[in-house]
Amino acid sequence: KVKPCQPAVQHRHLLLAFVRYVPSGGRSFELLSAFEKKAAIGDARPMGTCWRFVLGVSCWHYVSQVVVSAVAGAFTQLKVSSLAAGGLRSSVGRQNSPNFPSQPPPDFGADPDVLAATQTSPLPWGEESSWNTLVHQVFTTAMAVVVGFSLSVGVAFADDSSGAATVEAALSFIKRNYYDQTFNKQDFDGLSAKYLAQARKGESAESLTRELVASLGDRYSRIVDAATFEKLMAFDPLGVGVVLTRNERKEIFVSSEPFNSSSAAKAGLRQGDIVERIDGLSLETESLFSVMDRVAQADRPEVLLAMRRGPAEVSAERWEQTLARSRTSMPQDRVETGVAPIGPDGHRVGFLRLRSFGAKSARDMAQALKEVRAQGADEFALDLRGNGGGSFQVALEIATLFLEPDSVATRVKTTSAETDQLVRVTPSAPDGSSLSCAAAAATVAREPLVVLVDQGSASASEVLAAALRGNCRAPLLGARTYGKAAVQGVFGLPNREAMAITVARYSAPTGTRIEGGLRPDGPGPGDNPFSQAASALGLPVDFTAADYAKIDFSAARQTELLKTCRPSESW
Question: Where are the beta strands (DSSP E) in 255-355?
Answer without folding.
Answer: 274-278, 281-282, 302-309, 317-324, 335-339, 349-354
